[in-house]
Amino acid sequence: MKKPVFKGSAVALITPYRDNKVDFEAYGKLIDFQIAGGTSALVICGSTGEAPTLSDDEHHACIDFAVQHTAGRVPVIAGSGSNDTQHAVDMSNYARKAGCDAVLMVTPYYNKPTQKGLLKQYTYIAERVDLPIILYNIPSRTGVSMTGPVYEELAKFPNINGVKEASGDFALVNDLMHRCGSELNVWAGNDDITVPVLAMGGCGVISTAANLVPDVMHEICAKWFAGDHAGAAAMQLAYYDLLRDLFLETNPIPVKTAANLMGLPGGDLRLPLCEMSDENLAKLKKTLAKHGLIAG
User: Fold this and answer.
1) Which residues pair with 79 in a beta bridge?
2) Which of 27, 122, 136, 239 is catalytic?
3) Domains of the chain
4) Which of 33, 45, 267, 276 sits 20 to 30 Å CA-CA off 155?
5) Is the peptide bond before 139 cis (omega within 30 degrees of 0)?
């Protein structure tokens, strides 16, 4: 049985930019807000953190800052995946030396490897990275999805700790859990499937919404683990419109917009991401006001 890197709600943390540079003062405030809100772990430099537009120097600096500022209060998990296998190894080993607790490893994007290629990619990385690895399956962004047989093979590696499953494919989640059991921990990769994944034996969620409501996402998981399954489900349903509207446009456009509207230092977006359309912004504001996150 593999002990999960964390249980509960981890935040997929946004990266605050100002004048096209990472604003580390804001980054520290966001980290403190998360920990105060009950977040179980920080996941930095992922999709929500706009990792594709971070230079290597910026990526390293974000890792260093997050580890130092968090100071062991919660685990720090660094996004280190790449469509360049050796780059993924190098970034993962940088995260290990910096003091991260684990890495998040997205499937290679654009290359569209076969299942054999995915197995070889992760085998190569697992043999060269001495740190817990959380796989990240998000075919809507990468163009390729893991399958049950590949998960089953990868679960045999002691340092492959689990997977952030963001495919939305419950048949696949069933299959991987059936095949891997306690040898591969599973976290929901989409906020709106948190309770269903928990119900299937998952460990929690790596959450976009937690950027805004870390207490809510924490409480959903806490209720579930305490045996209040109906309460957890009711809470997720009560916030479903917020979880939905944070994806009105490409993540993290809505969540960074919402953070700024709430007075959190979300910062700017970096091209090619840009400001929301007026129509979607109006919808988002209405939902934020409904939940008391901004004035109505």
Assistant:
1) 104
2) 136
3) 8-290 (3.20.20.70)
4) 45
5) no
Distance CA(238)–CA(188), nearest Å, equals 18
Which residue's structure tokens are 């772990």?
Answer: 41
The CB density around residue 233, as the number of other CB atoms within 10 Å, is 18
Q: Which of 7, 164, 223, 256 is catalytic?
A: 164
Nearest to 23 by CA among 270, 249, 231: 270
What's the CA gap between 106 and 131, in Å, rounded? 15
109 an active-site residue? no
Peptide bond into 149 cis (omega under 30): no
> What does DSSP say about strands 133-137 and 102-106: parallel, antiparallel, or unpaired?
parallel
- Tell me the pLDDT tens digit for each residue of 34-53: 999 999 999 999 999 999 99
pTM of the model: 0.96
- Distance between CA atoms of residues 31 and 102, nearest Å: 17
Tell me whether residue 124 is one of the annotated catalytic residues: no
Q: 3-class SS at 165?
A: strand
